[in-house]
Amino acid sequence: LCDSYNLHLAYTMAKYGMSMCVLGMHEELRHFNIAVNALWPRTAIWTVAMEMISTKAAQNNCRKPTIMADAAYALLSRDSTNYTGNFVIDEEILREEGMKDFDQYSVNPGATLLEDFFLSDVAETANFGTATSILSLDVLIDETKQRITPDIVQKIQAIYQFDVIEGPKIHSIYFNLKNGQGGIHKSLDNTQHVDVHFTIDLQTLYKLFSGEMPLTIAVTSGKLKIEGSMEKALLFSQLFKPLNKRKA
């Protein structure tokens, strides 16, 4: 598993343990009219925990804790006799309350937001386990090049190495999202330093880039291994979905 799990095991256990508590306790306390719900952020929230696993450079790609405060108020205001056992996402419950302006919650309004690392979108995970046709590596690279823009390069500022497993072969691909217009290459200049090293099989790589498998599932299932800067690894996830899904 990734370095984040190795170095922050207690935090990871707490996140998933919360889910287990909701599943059990909402039934246990239902007859007392006590509601038990879980509240999750849609995006990364700039807190002490986030600062521990990143640097201040990631702050601009996070939302403020105030969105969780407002979402918690909305959640606690619900009728406890019938609204219990739910896994609530901050943005969704606020939309239900009529909220439309979410830029007010961004540390840097207009910046691309990081998705919460522990959150798997139901719409994306529903069919991620079904068979997916494996595209050739060259076709996948050509399609991905269209997603790299000067704006992405300016925001990410990192170089990534992918070791892609295709049967008995291992192909190395380098994403230069640090210099100039950016690009994808099959070799790297000796003067350049790799910030993040990914190891992944071709089928999983395709699922990530097409939006069929969330980053969380790829990591926790062991299909994606990460070495290097976790902050930069999270930033790269901006390329893991089609362009029309990248913006929050």
TrEMBL record:
Q: A cellular component term (GO) from this record?
A: mitochondrion
Q: Which residues form the SCP2 domain?
A: 146-241
Q: Which UniProt keywords apply?
A: NADP, Oxidoreductase
What SUPFAM superfamilies is this protein classified in? Answer: NAD(P)-binding Rossmann-fold domains (SSF51735), SCP-like (SSF55718)
Q: What InterPro entries does the record tag this protein with?
A: HSDL2 (IPR051935), NAD(P)-bd_dom_sf (IPR036291), SCP2_sterol-bd_dom (IPR003033), SCP2_sterol-bd_dom_sf (IPR036527)
Q: Does the keyword NADP apply?
A: yes
GO molecular function terms attached to this record: oxidoreductase activity
Family in the record: Belongs to the short-chain dehydrogenases/reductases (SDR) family.
Q: What is this protein called?
A: SCP2 domain-containing protein
Which organism's genome codes for this protein?
Brugia timori
